[in-house]
Amino acid sequence: MSDRSAVLVGRISGIYGVRGWVKVYSYTQPRENILSYLPWQVGSEDGGWRIMKVVEGRSQGKGIVAHLEGFNDRDEVRSLIGLDIKVGRDQLPQAAEDEYYWADLVGLQVETIDGVVLGKIDHLYDTGANDVVVVQGDRERLIPFVRGDVITDIDLDNGVMLVDWDPEF
To answer: Tell me: the pLDDT tens digits for 120-163?
Structure first.
């Protein structure tokens, strides 16, 4: 599976109950959308991936729980804790204009509006207030994903994100 053929949408974060259900940390917005993108590819980059069918799933408190086919007790699912969940890119809706999947931003070169190269996007995360772009270059930089004020342009075709950012930060 190539890096661009699948998109990371969540992670198995724990065990739920005694009948083989798992807790799922969803990266989708809203978080329940992860249950719409089936089947899942569950695994890790170093351990390999396998297709898993979700038999049933639902919101539970502030998270998601799911029952995966072939797992019927808590001891069987223990080995899944910490594994990532990916889905095929073709399972996702097309991003709207001026919207991006985080997976499409990872790896872009980040440059200031003055032409200073800061590095490449390593990953993004959500702080609650706004998303943060983690840029690896001569050092790690945390840049708020604020369109217009900080992020001035995203050019996926050329692999560049322009930012209005002081290189000293």
So the answer is: 999 998 887 889 999 999 999 999 999 999 999 999 999 999 99
Q: Which CATH topology does 102-162 take?
A: SH3 type barrels. (2.30.30)
Q: pTM surpassing 0.85?
A: no
Tens digit of each residue's pLDDT (9 = 90 or more) over 30-40 = 999 999 999 99
Q: CA-to-CA distance for 16 and 83, rounded, in angstroms?
A: 15
**Contact (Cβ atoms closer than 8 angstroms) between residue 51 and residue 69:** no
Q: Which CATH number fits domain 6-89: 2.60.40.1890, 3.40.50.2300, 2.40.30.60, 3.40.50.2000?
A: 2.40.30.60
